[in-house]
Specification:
Number of strands: 10
Order of helices and strands: EHEHEHEEHEEHEHHEHE
Structural class: alpha/beta
CATH topology: Spore Coat Polysaccharide Biosynthesis Protein SpsA, Chain A
CATH architecture: Alpha-Beta Complex
Distance between the termini: 28 Å
């Protein structure tokens, strides 16, 4: 980040690798937020599909405070893409949004409101996260995905904090750059570092974003959840049972 963060600006970072079939819907959910100002930074991580063309076409119709497309020529992984976005991020608040997921229209307003209120009560609370709706590749509802209330000790061994959590950007910057050798368990690596620096999270136990299950989810959750749903297993999915930790694969 160059200089001081812009007050109340939310920087949404979308790392993308070959999710051209989904990313237009993800960008659309950013444009549909009932909050301003928002800057959108998309890092294309050496995609070989039509992702870059889709992003450039979508950018023509966006009315946001700032948009930026960073094209990485050699694949650096999700954490590498995030590192490159953090070099230029300008917002007081930040969010990592996966290129195959999308937010409810009031997601940003709700999460930022709760973050500011929780931080006023406890100045060590630096991020807010929610539950989600699990959908398939076509956007059809599968089940509810549940996180758990914040527990600093459980962060050491469980990945339960979802990616689109709203966080104070300075907290991400103080724990970056992230380890680009980690290619699975990426969100666990990021949150683990943040919590180890003494920061806390606040959980909203409501499904406020849509998490897409498909055969190419980086964590492998899509294949597992879809197989269980096909067998008739329904109710809710405890996400920490499916997301890998940072040490499972490198």
């Amino acid at each position: 980040m160059n200089g001081q963060a812009t007050d109340n600006l939310l920087s949404i970072i979308i790392p993308n690798h070959n999710y051209g079939q989904f990313i237009a819907e993800t960008i659309a959910c950013v444009a549909a937020q009932d909050y301003a100002p928002i800057e959108l930074i998309i890092v294309d991580d050496a995609s070989t599909d039509n992702s870059v063309e889709v992003v450039k076409e979508c950018f023509k119709f966006l009315d946001l405070a700032n948009t930026r497309l960073i094209e990485v020529e050699e694949n650096v992984g999700k954490l590498g893409a995030i590192n490159r976005a953090l070099e230029v991020v300008q917002g007081e608040y930040g969010m990592i949004l996966d290129a195959d997921d999308y937010l409810t229209e009031g997601y940003v307003t709700r999460c930022l409101g709760e973050l500011k209120a929780a931080h006023a009560e406890d100045d060590k609370i630096a991020f807010v996260y929610t539950d989600c709706n699990l959908i398939d590749a076509n956007g059809d509802y599968l089940d509810r995905g549940k996180s758990i209330p914040f527990d600093a000790e459980k962060v050491q061994t469980l990945s339960y904090i979802p990616e689109p959590a709203v966080v104070m950007t300075k907290i991400m910057l103080e724990t970056a750059p992230y380890d680009e050798a980690i290619r699975r368990g990426t969100k666990h690596h990021k949150w683990k570092r943040i919590v180890e620096n003494g920061w806390k999270g606040h959980h909203i136990a409501e499904p406020l974003f849509y998490y897409r299950m498909h055969d190419n989810n980086l964590s492998g959750i899509g294949q597992k959840v879809q197989a269980e749903v096909n067998k008739g297993a329904k109710g809710h999915v405890i996400l920490s049972g499916y997301w890998p930790t940072e040490t499972e694969q490198r």
